Amino acid sequence: MGPILEANINMFNTLHFLKLTGLNYNFWTTSIKSALQSYFLWLYVSSEEDMPTVVIFTPPSFDEMSKDYKS
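Structure (tokenized):
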């Protein structure tokens, strides 16, 4: 799998679950696994897939763009 661009990660997509207790463990684990699978993250949690690298995109400065334009 290729690198993930930081700009593509939407921090507003949050999941909410009941607090884990000894009484709701089976329901909690099923809910967590299902949610992670729906976001294609379960393979990373289960160590079946290596975590992708995160690439931080920095746009070129005006000076860098003008140098390219002039050449």
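The radius of gyration is 20 Å. Residues 3 and 47 are 17 Å apart (CA to CA).
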